[in-house]
Amino acid sequence: MARPAKKLPPMILELLPTHSRDLVTAVAERANVSRPTVSSHIRKLERDGWITSIGTTHKTYRLGAKRLRLRALPISKDLDESQIWREEFSVLAGDMSQNVRQILEHGFTEMVNNVKDHSGGATLSCAFMASPSQVTLAIYDDGEGIFRRIRRLCGLADDRLALLELAKGKLTTDPANHSGEGIFFTSRAFDHFAILSGGLIFTHDANADWLQEEDGLTETKMPETGTGVFMMLARESKRDLQSVFDRFAAPEEFSFSKTIVPLRMARLGDENLLSRSQAKRALSRVDRFKTVLFDFTEVQSIGQAFADEIFRVFANAHPDVELIPVHFNESVKKMLLHVGVSEDKLEAPNPEQ
């Protein structure tokens, strides 16, 4: 029985990587349709940018600038993220630069491994989408939800605090098998990185982490359970993965030793950063790092107790951890000086880059 016409374009794109020289014949035989019918669909795919061809009589076909592949797989302990990438998606990135391919593979395998080990879901859905200028990877699972799981297993008071802990890095609910570095570095390797789960959205964009509550910010509503991860990278990106790792490693070391704490994410709702308990949220686990940058972007003012807890009490108790405030306004600067932060530290160039 012949395949419906709407099934032919996906089949053409599916068979193209392994039938670049006999694409028309391969699709016609597989779909039980005529060669002219297949050729007609191929011409339309060429016009729309999904396919390119070389030659006239005996054409050789290649993937066009636009690319799309979707896969749904059962989640099990035997799920092999590297095999999925190699067999299903690597061909879509095959003609891109080595640094772009490496970042795409890293992001895909890290996020799929997280789904396998942490989601508790039944089904993994993956997508590779490319335009002439950008590649987007999407990973979705139908499990508990990443923020809800972190809040439950780490004993946090609110799902939103899970986003703050993710932003710091070195967070894992399975320390025997994971370092807690995957999301931190993956989010910084891509131009734009987003996690959607339980009505909350964690994004990393242009060296900053953000928390948003869904509430109409996205056109597509996420289910209450499950997690969606979206990673976007320019096809002509010059970024390389090693440089991302190097930004957060101590000189002459290969360890993850520096982090950034986005203090706007230490707030719940409209609260101001005033108390020692809020400071302790921000300080959770930062003693695992050698250098901690406290990012005051969008923080208009801070209380004396908040500043004192971080920059005097914690600093005195952990002299081996360097605390560096960045992106602060004059009001915040005055309070930092009040609790004893040196003028030199406040006037130093931003060390984040």
TrEMBL record:
Record-linked InterPro entries: ArsR-like_HTH (IPR011991), DUF4325 (IPR025474), WH-like_DNA-bd_sf (IPR036388), WH_DNA-bd_sf (IPR036390)
GO terms, biological process: regulation of DNA-templated transcription
Pfam families listed in its UniProt record: DUF4325 (PF14213), HTH_24 (PF13412)
Residues forming coiled coils: none
Domain DUF4325, residue spans: 279-332
Protein name (record): DUF4325 domain-containing protein
